[in-house]
Amino acid sequence: MITTLIAVDGSEHSLRAVESVCRLAAAGLVMDVHVLNVQIPVESGHVRMFVEADMIEDYYRQEGLAALKDACGLLDGAGIKYTRHIAVGHVANTIAHYATKLQAEQVVMGSHGRGALKHMLMGSVASDVIRQAGCAVTLVR
Question: Is 110 strand, coil or helix?
Answer without folding.
Answer: strand
